[in-house]
Amino acid sequence: MRLDMPEGNLSPTRRAVAASFFTAGYALALSPPAQAAITTSAEGLVVEEPVLDGADGYRLPSYLVRPDAGGRRPAVIVVNEVFGIHEYIKDICRRLGRAGYVALAPDYFDRAGDPATAADFNQIRPMIAATHYEQVMGDTQGAIEFLAHNAHVNAGKLAITGFCWGGNVVWMAAARFPQIKAATAWYGRLAPPNQGDFGYEPGRPWPLDIAGQLHAPVLGLYGARDQGITQESVQAMRAALAGAHDRTHSEIVVYPDAGHGFHADYRDSYNEADAQDGWRRMLAWFHDHGV
Asked: Which residues are catalytic?
């Protein structure tokens, strides 16, 4: 059973990737379709590279974008895919910055390596396996604390969003941290993998386990054609939310024609119409819940 891997065969790279973490481009194993990949200008934005206090005091690199204007802004934690902080995630931060948010992407995989510079998925697998659940939660707490003390952030208006691997993190963070006021999970795994399968970690909870513990409303965005996240697990999550008398009024939207990674404009799984609709829904979700 796979865990949130991109659909289709991995194609050769069409662009070089610099060795530096903060100048890394798309993952080497992927090829951004020239007609689809989105590049958002940083004009009018401030781009920073703060170091956060992660789990166990680890000095965690991150990528931050904020509007170049005065005042305190709502903030969004952006949780990466399995490919780390590559150009797509940076562009997500710039898009959020242009929407008026302070966007912060922690590098959760930094202790194990940089997936954005990996030559193939076999190099990425051990980085993901080494990034354990409690470490991820501790790193997220560090991001929350950093934003709470940032002079450009309204600490009472904090959201989180994430894609693929990061979509799962979104559900878990919404149950762990009451500081988070709204969340959007893009095709994050809901059910645990079988023992021995990729992504298995003994003893850790999964979204199906914490449906009744959510502090923040979660908007889940999923594709009916996702071969890694079954519609059975989506329906099970809906049932778990209903059975837990979910007071956050979380919601799951399923796009009939979308597969896994339908928002990833740099690869063949991209579905422009559903990606744009999901983005509009996410911004409205944050706004409607005070972020």
From this structure: 164, 226, 260
